[in-house]
Design goal:
With 448 residues, the protein is of the alpha/beta class. The protein folds into 4 domains: 30-118, Alpha-helical ferredoxin (Fumarate Reductase Iron-sulfur Protein, Chain B, domain 2, Orthogonal Bundle); 127-179, no CATH class; 193-319, Glutathione S-transferase Yfyf (Class Pi), Chain A, domain 2, CATH 1.20.1050; 333-446, Rossmann fold (3-Layer(aba) Sandwich), CATH 3.40.50. Helices cover 50% and strands 8% of the residues. The chain has 24 helices and 9 strands. It has helices spanning 30-34, 47-52, 59-70, 78-85, 92-96, 103-115, 124-137, 140-155, 158-163, 172-179, 213-216, 218-230, 246-250, 254-271, 281-288, 290-293, 300-310, 314-319, 340-345, 350-357, 380-383, 385-402, 412-425, 434-446; strands spanning 193-196, 203-207, 233-237, 275-278, 311-313, 333-336, 363-364, 406-409, 430-433. A 5-stranded mixed beta sheet has the order 1-3-2-4-5. Strands 7-6-8-9 form a 4-stranded parallel beta sheet, with helices on both faces. It is globular. Residues 1-18 have low confidence and may be disordered. It binds iron/sulfur cluster (SF4) (2 copies). One iron/sulfur cluster (SF4) binds at residues 36-42, 59-60, 63, 93, 96-97, 99, 101.
């Protein structure tokens, strides 16, 4: 392999004519791959390795496969790609790695370089996933139509029946998949324009509404807006914003991710704000990496760099502001499930704890492995239901040991997965974003 700068695309091995190889502008960098010294420190932190005990389901094993495809020693067969598919892209291996291997971008690049093959050569499941993400998730009217059908299912009572008397009659796999469908009874959050304008404004910020979370968990946005106002922020939501493209990047559809990134950069630049606030860790991580996504684009690259610096996770942002004044008591026991894309991709671990510790009356019980993935990972629970369920079971065992009333998260995907875990275990616990718990304290303080 010929070394190149980290993250620099290479176009080696694009001339092989048979089978699937890495092609296009996103081929994983040799330098990134060569960083791996095969020490295996990442193995015990990898949920898929822990669940299966197989080297090829570990970061080291997958890096070995990616290097072999890169060098043309093997072709990317369905069997090889199945090992890519079983990766959660949780990036726990990055945190554990003493050698600084940027596993997340290597895996994203590998997937993008498979998807850059001719459409007819791409694996059917990958093509279908990309089409669904491109034509449903990235298109707001279509996505809203699909979610409205889900809302009908929840509100009609059918979901309650499926989770109640019918549950024991359903095949285990169907029951498991059903428990992953969100309960859509709340009115979605679709507001744009100025969302909050407190009396004393010390900063002006814009909120990412996202494709899913305002539809599934409107209370997260409502809480975010109230807390930001409490911390002195005027909050706006530019109507031109779109889905962040994280799911598209993870699935290897770099072109759709780049198209969405350009639209978001333009929308948020026009808002002229001090920061772009994101309350979904997966979306925030993707938006902080727009600079890399658009690195080869001479027009958008520099704009993406400026934009990425303006993106802040809501917990990171609030923890640095004057948020702890006038809080009321919250008499609950919480535990914290660290979202992978907050802890491992954005390296934010202290901010959620700082916020929770500041809430009067709140008791915090730590998990044994708070930064171990819950098995959600975007659409992983739908495409890898068995492995996702095994990872969730381990997580729920850890949660139950704490005796918490509330499981705190920082990502809507984790919320959905943990809610499925609560249904499966029959636990009596709620799942809430950390910002919702802080909002509870803000409202309790205001009501005194
Ligand atoms: S990203 Fe997560 S699942 Fe994938 S190899 Fe790394 S630790 Fe394992
Ligand atoms: S990815 Fe890092 S921790 Fe894992 S084997 Fe390679 S060098 Fe070691």
């Amino acid at each position: 392999m010929t070394p190149s700068a980290p993250g620099t695309p290479t176009h080696e091995h694009t001339s092989l004519s048979q089978g699937l190889h890495f092609v296009g502008p996103d081929v994983p960098s040799v330098a990134d791959l060569q960083n791996c010294i095969h020490c295996g420190f990442c193995l015990p932190t990898c949920p898929t390795y822990v669940a299966t005990g197989q080297e090829l389901e570990s970061p080291r094993g997958r890096l070995h496969l990616i290097s072999a495809v890169h060098d043309g020693r093997i072709e990317a067969t369905d069997r090889t790609l199945a090992h890519f598919d079983r990766c959660l892209q949780c990036r726990a291996c990055e945190t554990a790695c003493p050698s600084g291997v940027p596993y997340g971008r290597i895996m994203e690049d590998a997937r993008a370089s498979i998807m850059a093959n001719a459409p007819t050569a791409q694996p059917v499941s990958w093509r279908l996933r990309a089409l669904a993400l491109r034509y449903v998730v990235a298109r707001r009217p279509v996505l809203r139509f699909v979610l409205d059908l889900g809302r009908l299912y929840s509100r009609s009572g059918l979901q309650r029946i499926a989770r109640g008397p019918l549950r024991r009659l359903l095949p285990a796999k169907i029951a498991r998949m059903e428990s992953s469908i969100p309960v859509l009874t709340e009115t979605p959050f679709r507001e744009t324009g100025t969302l909050a304008s407190p009396r004393e404004v010390t900063a002006r910020v814009a909120l990412l509404l996202g494709c899913m979370h305002g539809e599934m968990y409107p209370r997260m946005h409502e809480a975010t807006v109230r807390v930001l106002a409490h911390a002195g922020c005027e909050v706006v939501a530019p109507p031109e914003q779109v889905c962040c493209g994280a799911l598209h990047s993870h699935a290897g559809d770099a072109e759709t991710a780049r198209a969405l990134a350009r639209r978001n950069i333009a929308a948020f630049e026009a808002a002229g704000v001090d920061a772009v606030i994101v309350n979904a860790a997966g979306c925030g991580a993707a938006m902080k990496e727009y600079d890399r996504l658009l690195r080869n684009d001479p027009h958008w690259g520099p704009r993406a760099q400026r934009f990425s610096h303006s993106v802040k996770d809501v917990l990171e942002y609030v923890a640095e502001r004057d948020f702890a004044h006038d809080l009321g008591t919250v008499d609950e026991t919480v535990t914290l499930q660290e979202a992978c894309h907050l802890a491992h991709a954005q390296k934010i671990r202290e901010a959620p704890r700082r916020i929770l510790r500041a809430i009067p009356g709140l008791r915090i019980e730590e998990l044994k492995t708070p930064d171990r993935c819950c098995g959600s990972a975007g659409i992983y629970s739908f495409v890898q239901p068995d492995l996702s369920a095994a990872i969730l079971d381990a997580k729920m065992e850890d949660v139950m040991r704490t005796g918490a009333d509330v499981i705190c998260t920082a990502n809507p995907g984790c919320t959905l997965q943990l809610q499925a875990g609560v249904v499966r275990t029959g636990m009596h616990a709620e799942v809430r974003h950390v910002i919702e718990v802080l909002d509870q304290a803000v409202r309790a303080g205001a009501a005194r």
